[in-house]
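G., the chain you wanted modeled:
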Amino acid sequence: MQNVESLCDVFEEEIIKRFYASDESESASDESYYYTPIFRQLLDPIKHVIEVSNFFNIDRIGINKDFLKEKVYRLEGDALLRNTFKSVVVDIKDVFRMAKEEIKRLHSLLDETETNRINEAIHDYLEYCHRSSVAMSVCAVESRLLKIVLSRKPEEKDKLEKMTLGQLIAENLRNKEEYDNMIPKKHEPLLNLCNTYRVLSVHPKEEEITEGLSRAILNLSILFLTDEEMQVAKRM
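Predicted structure as tokens:
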């Protein structure tokens, strides 16, 4: 999400250069440009960022959710006049610019490992690889759980790092006081859900991992990781 403005800049620059005459005429030289592969290649990442931003409950973007959808619809739906095209792209950039500090704050709540795993979960979700998305979402949660137990019992590092996800969950929930109740009760159902569906996502099972299920687990995992009540660094 942090690079959406640069994505918009590249999109605008390339489409103007390729499909609008150099004499600054308002009309596109190819009025079917929005069907071309390069148009899709440049717009789809912006659409994905808008879709993904909904997982992070960013107020400024949430308020403008329908506004952003309408702007993308305009870009996809017809060949726009040059200045109208530029104006629509600026409108999208402005929403993310206003949310920049909130995006930066949320990004700071995840460490590098958690960020990489959530990014992969999001990528898999967007590619309709729902088993993989669930597995990576849960891996991100597992990384945070391990960080929590290690912050309180660093002398047991070798033992703790060998624990399965289920064992880490049990360790946290069984010994809440030892870990200063760092995991709010509201997240306990998520932990049990993660343990159940991680097994289903990485082992051959008859039960289907649906888009709705992968979206729910991804969303709950992000809420868990970005909950400021349980940031390890602040509690140490």
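The chain has a mean pLDDT of 85.

Shout if anything looks off.
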